[in-house]
Task: structure prediction
Amino acid sequence: MNTQEILHKYEKNADNLLGLLHDLQDGHERHCLTPESMGAAAEYLGLPASYVYGVASFYTMFSLKPRGRFIVRICQSPPCHLLGSTDVSKELVKALGVGFGETTADGLFTLEMTSCLGVCGVAPAMMINDEIYGNLTATRVGEIIDDLRRVK
Ligand code: FES
Result:
């Protein structure tokens, strides 16, 4: 879906700004908001561009810099932590060669921490783009990353 198609999913109402920005970010291949997409949202909703930029830069769920094609979010909340998310996190850092908040040089992966994903029954868990992975082990997480590298 292109920017115009995303914009026209919404009524021209300032209350729709967060949802609109979320969809614009999801629709970008590098999972970010660009000056162009924020400008288009501002114009569409009749808001000052500086206001839209302020909102986008305030919320941590929005990224203003390009991220990887795959956003890897490992849960750090207590149930996952107790069941081994620290080991899984170390393996992810090793497998990807980047720290949290960073993107691999090939632009394929961005590694992030998140709070509870709502799937504590399969802790430790992570989410890659929209897909949940549970019952993780250090070995399994390495295999998942290798599989994603192969399908790029
Ligand atoms: S604590 Fe990790 S999914 Fe709930």
